[in-house]
Amino acid sequence: MNATAAYTERRDQARRTLEALDRTGGRLANLRTLAFLTFLALAALVIFDRVPRAVLAAAFASFAGYVALAVVHARVIGQEAREKVRKSLNERGLERLRGGWHRFPEKGAAHLPEGHLYAADLDVLGQGSLFQRLDDTGTRAGEVQLAKWLLSAAPSASEVRARQGAVKELTALLDFRQALVTEARLAGQDKADPTRFIAWTEAPSFLGGIRWAWLAAHVLPVFTLGAGFASAFFDTPALPFWIGVVLQLGVVQLTKTPINRMWTALASGESGFVRFEETFAAIDRQTFTNPRLQALKAGVPSSGPTVSERLAKFARLMGFAELKTSGQMHPIINVLTLWDLHVLFRVERWRAQHGGGVRGWFDALAQLEALSAFAGYAFERPDDVFPEVLDEGFVFEAEGLGHPLLEHPVRNDVSLAGPGVALIITGSNMSGKTTLMRTMGLTTAMALAGLPVTATRFKIGKTQLLTSMRVKDSLERGVSYFYAEVQRIKLLLDTARAHRDACLFLLDELFMGTNARERTLASKHLMRELLSLGAAGAVTTHDLALCELEQELPGQTRNVHFRDVIVEGEMTFDYTLRPGVVTTTNALEVLRRAGVVVPDELKPA
After folding, report:
1. What is the pLDDT at residue 126?
2. CB-side exposure of 354: number of CA atoms within 13 Å?
3. What's the confidence (pLDDT) of residue 52?
4. Do the beta carbons of residue 92 and residue 181 sit within 8 Å?
5. Distance CA 75, CA 71 (A)
6. Parallel, antiparallel or unpaired: strands 536-540 and 503-508
């Protein structure tokens, strides 16, 4: 089943399920109301002696029915929430296939570090970016992991191949991928962030200084409540009861500070963590054959209770601990039973048993989310290929290479024979020069992250991407465009020196902030410097003097070009890469078509 059919079927199924659940919910709501009203009516009749007291049993039965219906109704409401997320996921999938992903709010721009070596130039993050196209993660940690992989190449070719294998298996597991995201998103209104919860599990104990209170919590309430019971029903003195109450008040006062500190840290951490037992239950249920996926699943315990069971226990403890938020009931119950000590000592025991593994659980979840986002892309683009990634040596060989974010890209064959070689790309305005370089760069970033690419064949070696395309001046910093570009070029050169024979540079219209003569001299010098460092890449230019490098550096530079064609008065582009230097220009024609009057003497013959 192709992606469109799969998403359509699941969206329609979710719609039908929601309609059925809505009808069921309506019936349950009516039955709950009826059961509660029946309870009130029967209870009132008994109270006012209108019916025998035996009817009170029917009243309680009605109330029990009301409670049971409320439990069932809550489950139906939960299932409705789950189906709404599933429906949304499949609608997003269809929107991506229609090209509407540019409207998605998740752009990842907050994850872009200033001065990154290529991300801003290649639309890795931000509006219209690869991240915006890919992101279907359910947690903040998954989103961060996805951005991290897109912003930096995998540390080795073997790691890339491991991710590729995981993505290939996940591509076919649409139900699992959607269940993973669904349960994660149900855990919070927005993408839940487990960072604070992890920090709480790894923090020092808050109760270490009051270990003595554990014994008091288990002895004093038994004595106090027993004394109170004896006083109420066996006519014994009440003094022991009040002595117990006073002692327990003293325990509450002595332990108040550490208890409050722990509760504050716990409540803060739990609010970032929410409830993830169902998310991990989806992982627990899934069987993997790929070693990377098996390793990630092993990041959660392989023996003893599953992660979902451990988290469910924590959720129950939190439910008991939340009595502290009940302003009226909590003080009374806490004094009589030392409730906070009982519950928080059990929470502390849970942390001692399981806290050391929590970071690993959520790291595994984040990686599974990022791999699932990769797999979603592969599922929707079955004609894309997984590249061949080499362990050593610079290689860039692409056949049928197209831009991955364009719906119908024109494809070209592009290759760089090895380190220290470059393409000098000329062509008229809007002919495709910069798009080709962004295609080369973004494809490289995707390949080294573990994604499939838009090509019929792609081979890449160990590569550090370097780009200079969207240089901006800064009025606030007092930096001119030219100086900003010089700063950028200095960064690229320093990086190329640190990664000899392993850099791919992509440079767009060098040194536009200076005069033509100095621009040519500076551009040639920069190209010679990069090539001497073993960097390979491409540069676009309108300065045809730069094309002289093909003769000056034979075998190291190659001239290629794009062109436009005037057909019946219309300017057209075929976006096809050709050898040699461009022989036509279109700047004046572009001005004319924009409505700027061009004198006849300036028009080309």
Report:
1. 94
2. 23
3. 86
4. no
5. 6
6. parallel
DSSP 3-state of 352: helix
Q: CB of 92 within 8 A of CB of 99?
A: no
What pLDDT is attached to residue 179? 93
Give backbone dihedrals phi and psi of 161, rounded to 5 degrees, phi first.
-65, -35
Residue written as token pair 């035996």: 54
Degrees to nearest 5, angle at CA 331 with 329 and 333: 65
The DSSP output letter for 128 is T
**Radius of gyration of the chain from Cα atoms?**
34
For residue 568, give the 3-state DSSP assignment. coil
CA distance 224 to 241: 5
Q: Over the range 544-581, which residues count as b (16 or more CB within 10 Å of their CB) and which as e?
A: eebbbbbeebeebbbbbbbbbeeeeeebebebebeeeb
Phi and psi torsions of 211, nearest 5°: -60, -30
Which residues, in sequence order, are bridge partners of residue 399?
Answer: 457
Residue 323 in contact with residue 330, Cβ under 8 Å? yes
Q: Regarding beta strands 557-562 and 578-579, do their DSSP bridges make them parallel or antiparallel, or are they unpaired?
A: antiparallel
Strands 570-573 and 564-567, bridge-based pairing: antiparallel
What is d(CA 169, CA 288) in angstroms, rounded to the nearest whole number?
A: 8
> Cα(260)–Cα(255) distance, rounded to whole angstroms?
9
pLDDT for the residue 476: 45
pLDDT at 181: 92
**C-alpha to C-alpha distance for 36 and 42, rounded to whole angstroms:** 10
- pLDDT number for residue 35: 93
Count CB atoms within 10 A of the CB of residue 356: 11
- The token pair at 238 is 């009440």
Helix axes 174-186, 339-380, angle to 10 degrees: 140
Residue 590 pLDDT: 58
* Structure tokens, 61: 């039965």
How confident is the model at residue 204, as a pLDDT? 86
| Cβ(504)–Cβ(422) below 8 Å | no
Task: Please report where in the chains the tokens 């098996």 appear, as a residue.
Answer: 294
- CA-wise closest residue to 563 among 584, 544, 579: 584
* Secondary structure (3-state) at 83: helix
Tell me which residues of the chain have a pLDDT lower than 70: 1, 188-189, 269-274, 298-303, 472-479, 566-569, 584-605
Cα 184 from chain centroid (whole Å)? 11
Look-up of token digits 């929590």: 358
Residue with tokens 């020196």: 497
DSSP-assigned letters across all residues of 11-67:
HHHHHHHHHHHHHHHHHHHHHHHHHHHHHHHHHHHHHTTSS-TTHHHHHHHHHHHHH
CA distance 481 to 509: 13
Under 8 Å between Cβ of 96 and 11: no
Question: 3-class secondary structure for 146-179?
Answer: HHHHHHCCCCCHHHHHHHHHHHHHHHCCHHHHHH
> Is residue 248 within 8 Å of residue 224, measured between CB atoms?
yes
